[in-house]
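hey m, so remember when u said the tokens were messed up on ur end? i reran from scratch. heres the input so u can diff it against urs
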Amino acid sequence: MSMQSHPEAWHEVIHRSCSEKDQNDLFALLEIVRRVRENIDGYLDKVSDPKTEPFWKPADEHEIDMLAERTIREVVGELDLDANVLSEDLGFEDRGYDRVLVADPIDGTFNSAWGIPMYSISLALGSTDVNSLTTGVVSNLAADETYWAVKGAGAYLNGRKLEPTRYDYSGPRLCLHMGSMSDPITYDFAKKAKKVRSLGSASLEMCYVAKGALDVFYQRGINLRIVDIAAGTLIVREAGGVVLDDKGNELNIQLQDGARSPLVCARTMEEAQLVLEK
């Protein structure tokens, strides 16, 4: 893998803050991100090419997902990454290792297909459960935003350290899963907020809590899959935030296909109470 595929400033931060093993893992995940971004950009450019398509049209969501999935598997093989793979559509691949790469190839597929610039790739390495995660990366494929964290070494956005509790605002900023499948209580919580957003990419919504742009991200009704929240959980916690289930317990589900949980992600435990109090 070429170190030149990422800004030099990132490398200085990574070398300064991580062990050699963690550096290698992080650079491997960043290389996967680079390749997926390259392939998805190429596909979307072709779909919307004005030379062949006189009218704008949405891309095929399944094709986007499968292209990203295949790219991840290809790069894992090329790098000989010492991990099994658990991903959204292709499930679990046992490659004979003790740890697993938990991957959501495209988090926010609807957004990507319909030209909404809010979709990401989410990657995390761990062994058994959320608490075993050691490395996580979430990258907004439609923008210059790459978040990463290494356990015990902090969380970063494009090489800058994240501290979500550092910034204050004049009222609660909640990100809530809204729609026909959301828990009805969600709408009660919305009334407490100064601002409400629903962005369609759980991993990015968690990262916006990590950098302090949002106070709380809450989803209940359709429980989130482990592939959606693994990397985001590590990033939020390393930035000083909290990730809980809807009972207020520390979230710690298994790194297994089918594992799901409701989610409360907040800058502080105090702010988490906004959606824990009934």
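this time it looks ok to me. The mean pLDDT is 90. if urs says something different then somethings off w ur setup not the seq
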